[in-house]
Amino acid sequence: MTIVEKVRQLSAELAAEEALGSEERRLTDTTWKYLQETGVLRALQPARWGGGELPLAEFLDAVFEIARVAPAAGWVSGVVGSHPWQSALFPEETQQELWGEDAARMVSSSYAPTGKVVPVEGGYRVSGRWSFSSGCDHGHGVILGGVAGETEVADGVRVPDYGSIILLRDQYRIDDNWHTAGLKATGSKDIVVEDAFVPARRFLSHIRYEYVPGVRAPGQETNPGPRYALPWATLFNLVLVAPTLGMAQGFLDQWTEINKSRRGNWGGFYRDDPLTQRHLAQAYWTLDAAIMKMRRAAIEISEAAEAGIHISKDVRARYRWDITRGCELVGDAIADLYRNSSGRVAYLDHPLHRRYQDIVTALGHAFLVPDAVGLAYAARALGATPPEVQL
Questions:
Q1: Which residues pair with 255 in a beta bridge?
Q2: Which of 57, 114, 124, 195 is the most buried (most CB within 10 A)?
């Protein structure tokens, strides 16, 4: 049975837990147990650690299906489910620290470099605050983004070394400040670090391993499969796109069902109104196009990894523009349907109200704002100087 099939079998259970998770402002323990049972959280983990080491597209399909019925669970599945893949790129000693006693241990993340990562002898001093760490209550550690000095990308050329650093659970505290209108159950709280020492083996440079052809991440020595040669920024973008599109699919499912029997003030049914039909047809077309863009990007970066091809920044920019622009257009289509719904959607307990807030919250993530990657794509196509964007 595939993980997508397992997810569909548990769809009713996942949906039922979503409301309780919203009240608790974190995924319920029962939801976490369901996600573990489906295998989605470890789908991208190396097989030698007991993970699925599955194709990226299959993982995204499973995340999409979870978000379709349980938006917060889908979001956390995408974000946290990508971390075993990234953790596998760290040195073997770091992998042993994470998984040696229990290979099912998971970590949360916050990649914006809002805190300090200062190089010192033997490692780094880490301090500061990082926000939006989805699923952190169930994590055994956290991956934080930071700029750790400089790194060399060419002969004599040095640039700020942006990368990821792993802290274990006793090195930080969680600030319970996640009070939001949407995606309440993701528990995306702040991570606070007060002058923690982190050994060098727990820092991974994105700049060096992403953009310097031929330079392999340390973990690729023990995890040599093509899954672990995928570009991080593109992959992380995809794992946010999948749940967002899944949420939109769930909104369309509910909107369609509601409008089958919704009556207008004139006494007829909205289902017979040509404008209502046109709005829905446009929304379905837009969502389908965005899903196709997502899957194409996942398949093509996977094929490049299998062929040993280093994907250029130009191509990465196109993939990220394609998938983020798709999400933006889907968000516009959902907003259009929301505006053309009953005034009752203003009530907090209306299913479309909750869905709409979830989608709006998801689209606020920095990696789902298409402007910068659109400029990076177009500038490169025109031979102009592109903006600095993590690709």
A1: none
A2: 124
